[in-house]
Amino acid sequence: LRSDAGRPGSIAAAIRRAALGLLTVWLVATASFALVSAAPGDPAALLLGDDGDADARARAAKSFGLDRSAITQYGAWLGRLARFDLGTSISFRAPVTAVILDRLPMTLSLMLPALLLSSLLAVALGLRAAARKRGGRGSGTLVMAATLAAIPVYVLGQLLILLFAVDLPWFPLHGLSDPRGSSGGLDGMLDTLRHLVLPTATLALHQLVVLWLFVRARGVEERHSDYLRTARAKGLTVDQAYRRHVWPNVRLGFLHFVAAELGSLLGGAVLVENVFGIAGMGRLVVSASLARDIPLVTGIFVLVASLVVAANVVADTVSTFFDPRLGERRRHAV
Amino acid sequence: MAARWALHGLVVSLVLLLPSMPRAQGDPGKTVVVATPADPQHFNPGITTASHTHAVADSLFNGLVALARDASPLPDLAQSWAIEDGGRVYRFKLAGNVRWHDGTALTPADVAFTFREILLKYHARTKASLAPLIDAIETPDNETVVFRLKRPYPALLQQLDVTEAPILPKHVFAGTDPNTNTANLNPIGSGPFKLDSYRRDDQAVLIRNPEYFKPGLPRIDRLAFRVIPDERTATLAIAKGEIDYLRDISGPDLVSLRQNPDIVLDQVTSGPGGGNCIMTVGFNLERKILADVRVRRAFALAVDRNRMQRDVIFGQGRVADAPISSGIGFAHASGVLAPFKRDVEAAKKLLDEAGMTPGDGGVRLKIDMVHFPQFSRFSEAMRQDLSEIGVRLTPRPLDRAATIDTVFTARDFDSTLISYCNGLDPEIGVRRMYVSSNIGKVPFSNAAAYRDPEVDRLFDEAATLTEPAGRGAVYRTIQEILARDLPYWWLVETDFTVANRVGLEGFTSWRGQFAEQARVKP
After folding, report:
1. Which of A91, A180, A185 faces B8 most closely, judged by CB atoms?
2. Inter-CA distances, B24 with A78, A166, A180, B205, Å
């Protein structure tokens, strides 16, 4: 048996990890429920619009179960959550799951290309920078990177808009598609891609700096290692030696770092969506909070917390394949 | 679903057949793109007065009447009407050929149902003004609706357009909870456009209703609403041609649009959220520091409203010269506020008399001001003006939900800044600000907590009168009392500036249903 599944210790670890994950999700969900409930503002009154009326408010509250106490609402909500039912959005008057699933693809189609692009560039440029580093003085690139890292992502987005959508009218300002074009087919797809260029570039550029600095720093740490000297003695160029011998040592740490950065990437995506008017999860969080839409806000937090927890579990699992030492232990254990 | 795929297939083949077809900037006659600052959230204009819902949904429905620019009634679902029994009975004859978007005929029963079961229960503004008034709604035959009122009411017709009283289909809403009916997202209207697609926070696309009962209308094929919350972005988008029509333009953006030869501007006093709005400071009279009328007078004398009209709203409106809007001509007591010319020395003297003498750093008095974030330019202008008389004003911008809660529920504020829309009759949007029965947890009610038995009595009296001249006299008396007591300070009457790209015309921008007659310039 090569699998760990048969070992009691490992099962216990897996159960503990799953339980911890569930606990995290529950804590996040409860905290978000409490925060939105405690925030000043009445979701039922907001539904009435620009005027108020006590009867109409009471009717709206009853329709969405807001006439019950916060504790009762929380209990009902937990009960539904156990059945994977996130309830009904008050402001959009549609099931929370449907509202979120509508929006998730938009955020992912912003995040994933940005993540891929920034990771590939960070590794390529980071290793190169580590290989080229001379002496102790800071390089110009480092200063540039630090500057770029200091620009908030929404300012960066607005800069790109001014440059490439207003001064040079190459890309659209806002949104995901031009309603004058066709929404389906190749044409619609190209239109959406055109709309995604600037937001993806903003997010990737912002993320690139952090990842690049990480790869570079880890690469520099390996400068005086024996294996690198051996590789150089074999006749490899600096770049070759870094690619073939330093990267495998940096790889695992990089993977964990990227997984840990997912949360901040999501945070960046939220801001980028609001700058570029992309109807993804980021816009949704903002509109749900402004409407005090308790089921929707908590639904989003449950989902995001689950995704981040899942990403970390995946990173843990995948790392056993990348880390030769973990692999050793597994072989000995059999 | 199959139809949609077939449509996609058609579109793909068209694209393949016509590779040189111009894109993106396509023919504006086919699609008019409109910017809207917030997502509509649903498409039922009968259960909310929210402007973001009405901005889109009013194009899907109709009222009994439409309103001209000067608020005079024009036929809509009602092709004619007669006023009988000295204004107690309104008899409407419906257009005979109106069909709902699902093909069902629109009948008087729909009208009676909509008023009884939807508008008079859920539409806060219409409920407030009409519920105490309507005695019975009768449907004697297949084309007539009769409104019997408890007393003569001259302003009824102005409250029957699509924004105040959209007619909903009885066969869709009967026996359901209108708040949760799924037709709110899949609307069946009678209006010039039908809902084609909706992506939340992104866009809602309406298409021409080919069965519309008015011949030749609408004249455009698609009406696409794009959600653009940021005013600056929306202005850039219309300048660039990404959108064709934009309302609620803020002052600084107006300057650049006025100089743009591709843009046509129009100034109107109403829209999908109501009309005749006055930007108003509400003093919390329950706070000791503001209970003295001399302090409120000093505030009024210190604020430079002319500068506000020029530099904050960039000429989109007028300095308020009475508590009731000049848009309600018969009730507007012109000149009642004329004595309040800006006078810093007089203001200081009033504060001295009230015992508010300068303390540390010349500060006599500290007050906060709770308001929506988009009103920050107003509070900032007042902060500067008031610092000249030693009053330190601290603006507290809060989001919409928190502002409403802080002002009307928690009542944790010294002063607030609210855009009170008066509507077309004082009964709609004026009474609610002043009568003592309307102090409480209801949004946009009597924020000042002003109580004056004489004012309460006069509002009741005005509501029983029918002759505009007689009503006007009562409202003038009310406004004289208000100018004496200053529970509020009326800053500026705000208009809305609407922009569209040249090449388009026919927008009725003062109405919620603004694109029924829009077209490409021939």
Report:
1. A185
2. 47, 16, 6, 16
- B197 and chain A in contact, CB less than 8 A: yes
Q: Is the peptide bond before B218 cis (omega within 30 degrees of 0)?
A: yes
* Largest Cα–Cα separation, chain B: 83
Residue closest to A110 by CA, chosen among A254, A259, A268, A263:
A268
> Rounded to the nearest 10 degrees, what angle do helices A294-322 and A324-333 cross at?
80
Residue with tokens 């609402």, as numbered in its chain = A73
- C-alpha span between B327 and B486 (Å, rounded): 21
Alpha-carbon span B329 to B426, nearest angstrom? 11
Query: What's this model's pTM, rounded to 2 decimal places?
Result: 0.86
Distance from the Cα of residue B100 to its chain's centroid: 26
> B442–A53: do the CB atoms touch at under 8 Å?
yes
Instruction: Find the CB nearest B200 among A52, A102, A165.
Output: A102
Report the distance separating Cα B424 and Cα B329, nearest Å: 9
SS3 B412: coil
Q: Which of A88, A184, A287 sits opposite B8 (nearest CB)?
A: A184
Q: Within chain A, what is the greatest distance between any pair of CA atoms?
A: 85
Residue among B32, B179, B198, B430 with most chain A CBs within 10 A, to mutate: B179
Backbone φ and ψ of B264, nearest 5°: -110, 130
A164 interfaces chain B, CB cutoff of 8 Å: no
Q: Does A60 touch chain B (CB under 8 A)?
A: yes
Provide the sign of the torsion angle of the four alpha carbons B360, B363, B365, B368, taken in this order.
negative
- Give the pairing type, strands B277-283 and B488-494: antiparallel
Contact A179, B207 (CB under 8 A): no
Q: Which residues of B touch A291 (CB under 8 A)?
A: 41, 401
Tell me the shortest Cα–Cα distance from B51 to chain A, in angstroms.
7
**Which residues, 6 or more positions from A281, have their beta carbon under 8 angstroms from its beta carbon?**
A100, A103, A104, A106, A107, A266, A269, A270, A273, A300, A304
Which chain A residues have a beta carbon less than 8 Å from that of B53?
49
User: Taking the mean position of all CA atoms in its chain, how far away is CA B354?
Assistant: 38
**The tokens 């309040």 sit on which residue?**
B340
Burial class (CB in 10 A: 0-12, 13-18, 19+), B82: exposed
Pairing of strands B245-246, B31-36: parallel
Query: 């530099």: which residue's tokens?
Result: B311
List phi, psi (to 5°) of A138. Answer: -70, 140
Strands B245-246 and B496-501: antiparallel
Q: Are strands B365-371 and B391-397 parallel, antiparallel or unpaired?
A: parallel
- What residues does B282 pair with on adjacent strands? B416, B488
What does DSSP assign to residue B99?
B
Facing residue for A46 by CB, picked from B31, B179, B400: B400
Cβ-defined contact of B42 to A92 (cutoff 8 Å)? yes
- At B91, which helix (H) or strand (E)? strand B89-94
How would you write the pLDDT of chain B (522 residues) with one tens digit per residue?
344 444 454 444 434 433 333 344 444 448 999 999 999 999 999 999 999 999 999 999 999 999 998 888 999 999 999 999 888 999 999 998 999 999 999 999 999 999 999 999 999 888 888 888 899 999 999 999 999 999 888 789 989 999 999 999 999 999 999 999 999 999 999 999 999 999 999 999 999 999 999 999 999 999 999 999 888 899 999 998 999 999 878 778 888 899 999 999 998 988 877 789 999 999 999 999 999 999 999 999 999 999 999 999 998 999 999 999 999 989 999 999 999 999 999 999 999 999 988 888 889 999 999 999 989 999 999 999 999 999 999 999 999 899 999 999 999 999 999 999 998 888 888 998 999 988 888 888 899 999 999 999 999 998 878 788 899 999 999 999 999 999 999 999 999 899 999 989 999 999 999 999 999 988
Which residues does chain B have within 8 Å of residue A52's beta carbon, measured at their own beta carbons? 124, 408, 442-445
